[in-house]
Amino acid sequence: METLIYIFSEYIMHFDKYIPLVMENYGYWVYFILFAIIFCETGLVVTPFLPGDSLLFACGALAATSSELHFGTLFIICLAAAISGDSCNYWIGEEFGHKLLSKTTLIKPEHIKKTEEFYNKHGHKAIFLCRFAPIVRTFAPFVAGIGSMHYRTFVMWNIIGAIAWVSLFTGAGYFFGNVPFVKNNFHYVALGIIVVSVIPIFTEIIKAQRKDDATEK
């Protein structure tokens, strides 16, 4: 049983490595699997460990060379999963957030605390910025649902963030994923893209810190 659990978790958590094999064996079912993984990564607060950025990048790279993975369809599927996932997470937070926090140990309090602190500093645009931060991305809509953010405001930033996130990573994979250097150093390149994508977050943090320091003086 433990072996089966390990195989399943390894397969799901590193799905970006197995996409060609899934395409070969299951064809267009790969779109359903991709939708499910991205939806869960963004929509279920207990699954922040699932691949997100690297999965989008890998799919974009494969779409550039494979006729079985159409980039337009891939983009729409991933975008729909990202938007609906965040919306689901918001609803879970709004309806069951406080109960879940008090009754389960699967949600780490430090993750919730970090996300709340980020919201307090950056307000509504935190939904957009958190799209580019792994782990925090999963908790952001959940915390928004628990808090007082109006759903209409949340939806606007949710859609804008999803478009930017999916465009950046699938686009980068499509145009650069099959360059020999990138292909041979995939994990380093994916990490580099993540670092670059979170620069706006750190910029906002620095601005907020300077503003606080100026206020104290």
TrEMBL record:
What is its subcellular localisation? Cell membrane
Query: Domain VTT spans what residues?
Result: 50-174
Q: Mind telling me which residue stretches traverse the membrane in this protein?
A: 28-50, 71-92, 154-176, 188-206
Q: GO CC: one term?
A: plasma membrane
Supply the alphabetized keyword list: Cell membrane, Membrane, Transmembrane, Transmembrane helix
Q: Which Pfam families match?
A: VTT_dom (PF09335)
Tell me how this protein sits in the membrane: Multi-pass membrane protein
Q: Does the keyword Chloroplast apply?
A: no
Decide whether keyword Transmembrane is in the record. yes
Under which name does UniProt file this protein? Protein DedA
Q: Which organism is it from?
A: bioreactor metagenome
User: What lineage does UniProt assign to this protein's organism?
Assistant: unclassified sequences, metagenomes, ecological metagenomes
